[in-house]
Design brief:
By secondary structure, this protein is of the alpha+beta class. The chain is built from 20 helices and 29 strands. Helix 12 crosses helix 20. Bound molecules: guanosine-5'-diphosphate and manganese (II) ion.
Length: 610
């Protein structure tokens, strides 16, 4: 993704935010018209009618989810077939929508704005990738522009991922968040899961916003550890995008508008992600991008797939298309010279056809994933990939404070966004690259959603799967962690993956009943987290089994590190938030008050200056 070249263009300057790269509509329109005109001469154009919705009658999806993508890339067309619901049924829906729009306007032909109300027009023109200017200034030929006023999207200069599969980010997040802000619903970069208690036969649903490459897809496809699997199950509803609305019963409902997963290939392997491995196995229709590939056997290979490097290097090419055999021997099987790109991906459908019948391709797909209303949401999680400071989980009691927590999210940028690897920066609501409206309008709409949810408002919490031993090295003695450090299995303190069900369950249990907690300046954290008989209601035997399995991966004393609150680090965070929020003097007072509360809380724990 090329964030700097991605724009939102509206007629009114009201649409300008700090992060949406705003342009004036007409100027941007002339630019993309001149770039795209004639640029696909002699190429095949594919027209893909699609529906970004889980159901043709979903209250939000049916109104805002229809579109047609026009692309000159066969690769893009094939990916769209995995990632969205496409086909003649979508064209029929679009016809009906246009007809309805004509009736409501009383006109035989619709103008640009009115057509936009009926369906999204999304155009992807690749351009000449060999000669394209990539200067990152006005002379750059890559222009990825969303026009919310006419619900038109034109992307020129790429055929990859979010730059080109326009249903996903451009329509599903950028345009949808503009539509949502105007019409009092939400379009978020969030996964959606069900957490089912098999004993009670009851599911609760959770959405979570983690920045790109921070565990959304893996969490949604989670297989819970064996010792918990008789009792609990995580079901998949969505791994990247949630469209949400407040129902007439005040309940917040979420729906995944996509029909496939576009997951990070690296590290997808059986022991941590069995449901993903089966979803990408042969017969699934998966399309791989930027992985190692054998041009003869057509097998693929990427780092962290659980298999050693192939013995026979013949016919293997790396993600750049270069033969592995042509490399110096020392670089052929070396982690320093990867075969797959760090942002290599798989596109795999949620459902597949098998001998005339439709079956689940993602094996833990929730039975309600195509429910017409979506699913009721009990908790909203934010997370990131922080090596330090953020505990494994903390509950934020006041929902406006929870929203604030999501907006001030800071992340270590990953390979998904071009050139940003390793840098720490703000990513408000993980929507930093995807905002359609201005941040202020966006937050006002969220506050409105929270107010309308009244006493059914979901519980807000913050999770962090990615605490690292290397960040604790200078205080092992202080925190009594020397032995745990010696016993570590990897640099990650928390084994994560399936074990993440524990912190998510803790949030849900804390919502429904009382769990032992410690009140801290940054929220509630678990106390006696390993006492599963208490807060999870397991029998003594069951709880022992869970502890035994867990302690194979993480020692009991390491749990202290997972819930360590370091005052100094939080003071640093306060300063970072001060600087970040100074950009937003126009935010509603109700929102800024949350920052004041946060400041007061941190001041109570701040180490006094000696
Ligand atoms: P998404 O882009 O947010 O959907 O992130 P993914 O689920 O694709 O994961 C991004 C990367 O983080 C992959 O390499 C995963 O293997 C890895 N990952 C996911 N969950 C965990 C976890 O709990 N612990 C650790 N250490 N890595 C994880
Ligand atoms: Mn993902």
């Amino acid at each position: 993704r090329t964030v700097e070249r991605t724009f939102v263009a509206t007629n009114s300057i009201q649409g300008r935010g700090r992060l949406n790269n705003w342009l004036q509509h007409d100027e941007a329109w002339h630019k993309v018209r001149s770039l795209t005109q004639g640029a696909s001469e002699n190429k095949t154009l594919y027209a893909i009618p699609y529906m970004m919705s889980n159901h043709p009658e979903h209250p939000i999806g049916s109104k805002y989810g229809l579109g047609i993508e026009l692309t000159d890339s066969r690769y893009v067309a094939l990916n769209m077939l995995r990632m969205t619901r496409t086909g003649s049924f979508a064209l029929d829906l679009i016809h009906a929508s246009v007809k309805k729009q004509k009736e409501s306007c009383g006109l035989a032909t619709l103008n640009d704005v009115e057509i936009g109300k009926a369906f999204v027009r999304a155009v992807n023109i690749t351009g000449n990738l060999d000669t394209l200017s990539r200067t990152n200034d006005e002379t750059d030929d890559r222009w990825f522009v969303t026009f919310p006023d006419t619900r038109f999207i034109v992307h020129h200069g790429s055929a990859y991922g979010g730059n080109a599969l326009l249903g996903k980010i451009a329509h599903g997040l950028r345009l949808a968040s503009a539509d949502a802000q105007k019409n009092r619903w939400l379009a978020e970069q969030m996964m959606i899961i069900g957490v089912r208690d098999k004993l009670l036969d009851k599911s609760e649903y959770v959405v979570a916003a983690y920045p790109s490459a921070s565990g959304k897809t893996n969490t949604a496809a989670m297989a819970v550890p064996e010792s918990l699997s008789n009792r609990f199950e995580v079901t998949f509803l969505g791994d990247d995008i949630a469209w949400m609305y407040v129902g007439e019963d005040d309940q917040l409902y979420a729906m995944n508008p996509e029909a496939g997963c576009f997951g990070v290939a690296i590290d997808t392997r059986f022991d941590t992600a069995p449901n993903l491995v089966s979803a990408v196995s042969s017969g699934s229709g998966t399309i791989w991008t930027n992985v190692g590939f054998n041009t003869n056997t057509r097998r693929i290979w990427y780092e962290g797939n659980g298999e050693p490097f192939p013995d026979d290097l013949a016919d293997w090419i790396d993600y750049k298309g270069e033969a592995i055999e042509d490399r110096p021997v020392s670089q052929q099987r070396s982690g320093d010279f990867p075969w797959a790109h760090p942002n290599s991906r798989f596109a795999s459908p949620l459902k597949k056809f098998n001998q005339g019948s439709v079956e689940n391709n993602v094996s833990n797909l929730d039975p309600l994933c195509e429910h017409q209303s979506g699913v009721p949401i009990s908790a909203i999680l934010f997370g990131g990939r922080l090596p330090y400071r953020e505990p494994l989980v903390r509950i934020i009691d006041n929902s406006v404070d929870g929203l604030y927590d999501g907006f001030v999210l800071g992340v270590v940028k990953t390979a998904a966004a071009d050139g940003a690897d390793g840098k720490f920066g703000p990513d408000p609501m993980t929507m930093g690259a995807f905002f359609g409206p201005s941040e202020t309008d966006y937050i006002e709409n969220w506050l409105d959603v929270i107010h309308r949810s009244r006493d059914k408002v979901p519980t807000f919490a913050h999770v962090n799967y990615f605490l690292r031993w290397s960040a604790f090295e200078d205080q092992l003695e202080n925190l009594g962690l020397e032995e745990a450090y010696q016993q570590r299995k990897s640099d990650f303190i928390w084994p994560g993956y399936g074990w993440n069900i524990l912190e998510i369950l803790w949030v849900l249990r804390s919502r429904n009943s009382s769990t032992d907690f410690k009140a801290t300046a940054v929220g509630r954290i678990p106390e006696n987290f390993l006492s599963f008989e208490q807060w999870l209601g397991l029998s003594d035997d069951e709880a022992n089994e869970v502890r035994t399995e867990l302690h194979r991966d993480v020692s009991e004393s390491a749990v202290n590190a997972l819930f360590h609150i370091d005052p100094e680090a939080w003071v640093g965070e306060l300063e970072r938030r001060d600087r970040f929020l100074a950009n937003y003097p126009d935010m509603p007072d109700e929102f800024l008050d949350a920052h004041t509360r946060f400041r007061r809380n941190i001041e109570t724990i701040a180490p006094s200056e000696a």
